Amino acid sequence: MTKIAVLTRDCGGVNAAIRAVVRTAVAQGLLVEGVMRGYQGLMSGDFVPLDRRSVSNIIGLGGTILKTAREEAFFTTEGQQAALAQVRARGIDGLIVIGGNGSLTGGRILAERHGFPVVGIPATIDNDVPGVDYAIGTDTAVNVALDALDKIRDTATSLERIFVVEVMGRKCGWLAMQVALAGGCEEVLLPEKDVPIDALCQEIKEGRALGKASWIIVVAEGCSTAVAVAAAVTAGTGLETRIAVLGHIQRGGRPTAFDRIMAARLGHAAVEALVEGRTGGLVHLVRDRVEFLPFGTAGDVKRTDIEYDYHLLKVLS
Q1: For this structure, is 154 an active site residue?
Q2: Cα(79)–Cα(59) distance, rounded to whole angstroms?
Q3: What class is the 140-252 domain?
Q4: Which string of DSSP letters, residue by residue, matches the chain?
Q5: Which of 14, 125, 135 is nearest to 65 (CA)?
Q6: Domain extents for the chain?
Q7: How does pLDDT run across 89-110, given as a tens digit for each residue?
Q8: Under CATH, which number does the domain 3-137+255-294 receive?
Q9: Of the residues 126, 139, 259, 309, which is catalytic?
Q10: pLDDT digit string (tens) for 218-233?
Q11: What is the pLDDT of residues 132-180, one digit of tens each?
Q12: What is the pTM of this model?
């Protein structure tokens, strides 16, 4: 193996992972190319050479210096053949994919369907990669969202109002659950759990009768929208409700120390796995140790048990 490429999505800690990949590869005598704009760049041949200098001072930057873009065309046979033609033309012997379910699925296709050496690094704010406890970017996203929620709490308390805060999480409510628990919120609505609005409204009315003046309800975007929940709560309680949609601020921000360190360890491990011929899987942390997980062995959907955290939230709220 003489040359590798790295492809990314974006979230806090991805640049730290790119830095670790490049500097580990260079230390082992490998050439490195960065793929611009994800699978779009892989198909079109949009590559840039990377060396130690090109990744200087990026460890604390949010997003990704390689940019990113969704490209559904890659998931066609023609798209995959175009990508393979590009990497072969450049003499690239292996690919490191840093991203979430979509990006890692693309890497799995290249590895299993076409036999190309791929190692994945989980990086997503949703934390929805099957078999992975924590992905790069999750800690940063929770802290970014929590900072916003703490400010909303100040206003909710002062104005004695109900706030519905919408966070990201299409199919996995992990981010919403963590933010709600860390923020001392009164309720969280998740894709994995049915919480009847009628029951929520009754709980609010009973709390109001006992003198409780403010609530914060966190909603995962995959469950509902803040607008819909706020309207239902107002209709069911007669109380004034405000909304806050945190949106893409959760994807940005300077990565936390936890994400930077995990990115450093996983980036280093991914290069070592490629060099040693352990491909067709991803590297991740298990009890603070880096382990290799073959694609497909953890299933297609992440199994999460949120019942304990939800019970804890209700006890403490």
Answers
A1: no
A2: 32
A3: alpha beta
A4: --EEEEEE--STTHHHHHHHHHHHHHHTT-EEEEETTHHHHHHHT-EEEE-TGGGTT-TT--S-TT-----GGGGSHHHHHHHHHHHHHTT--EEEEEESHHHHHHHHHHHHHH---EEEEEB-TT---TT-S--BTHHHHHHHHHHHHHHHHHHHHHHT-EEEEEE--SS--HHHHHHHHHTT-SEEEBTTB---HHHHHHHHHHHHHTT---EEEEEETTT--HHHHHHHHHHHH---EEEEE-GGGGG-SPPPHHHHHHHHHHHHHHHHHHHHT--SEEEEEETTEEEEEETTTT-SS-----HHHHHHHHHH-
A5: 14
A6: 3-137+255-294, 140-252
A7: 999 999 999 999 999 999 999 9
A8: 3.40.50.450
A9: 126
A10: 999 989 999 999 999 9
A11: 999 999 999 999 999 999 999 999 999 999 999 999 988 899 999 999 9
A12: 0.95
Identical fold between 3-137+255-294 and 140-252: yes
